[in-house]
Amino acid sequence: MNALDKQLIETEHVKTGNWVKLISILKHQFNEWATAALAKEGFDDFKMVYMPVLMNISPEGSNNTELASHARVTKQAMSKVAQELQKLGYIKAKADPRDKRSTTITLTDRGKRLVIKVRLSICSLTEEYRGMFKAADFDKATEILKKIIEYNDQELLHRK
Q1: Do 63 and 99 form a contact (C-beta atoms < 8 A)?
Q2: Extents of the domains making up the chain
Q3: Sign of CA dihedral 108, 111, 116, 117
Q4: 29-87: per-residue pLDDT in tens?
Q5: Of 74, 95, 91, which Cα lies nearest the Cα of 82?
Q6: Distance separating alpha carbons of residues 117 and 119, to the nearest angstrom
């Protein structure tokens, strides 16, 4: 057995139970849950890839640059998703009065109903999880995840 094969075997334990895989599985489970829940409410044309864009539109509207940043997607990806959401009737776009090169995106009534449904469903799911575990433990886990995200954001800024 060569050194590379030995190292591969020695690191085999990492593929099960590591936090990265657990978060990936949890994200996949959430996507399945949300897709099914939204379909039951009449949003059967909604794809989870739309979620980061749609959920980051402020009540007064967001310009495409701000939205891409908050959704953590490229401007190109955000524009593609925004076009699809506009065709589906979830958002509307108009020229930004402050910057004619930019677009302001707002939610339609259909988009508002979906965002409200998602927010309320997430609150309900959070309370269900808080009931399954000690609420303080669930809240602590949430705080730890926020700190990891903050740390990673800071590290990425320093690497650029």
Answers
A1: yes
A2: 20-159
A3: positive
A4: 999 999 999 999 999 999 999 999 999 999 999 988 889 888 888 889 888 999 999 99
A5: 91
A6: 6
Encode burial over 42-66: b for 16+ CB neighbours within 10 A, e otherwise. Answer: ebeebeeebbbbbebbeeebbbbeb
- 12-23 pLDDT, tens digit per residue, is 888 877 888 889
Pairwise CA distance, residues 104 & 46, whole Å: 21
What class, spelled out in words, does domain 20-159 have in CATH? Answer: mainly alpha
Instruction: Return the HEC string of the chain.
Output: CCHHHHHHHHCHHHHCCCHHHHHHHHHHHHHHHHHHHHHHCCCCCCCHHHHHHHCCCCCCCEEHHHHHHHHCCCHHHHHHHHHHHHHHCCEEEEECCCCCCCEEEEECHHHHHHHHHHHHHHHHHHHHHHHHCCHHHHHHHHHHHHHHHHHHHHHHHHHC
What is the residue type of 114? L
CB 108 within 8 A of CB 124: no
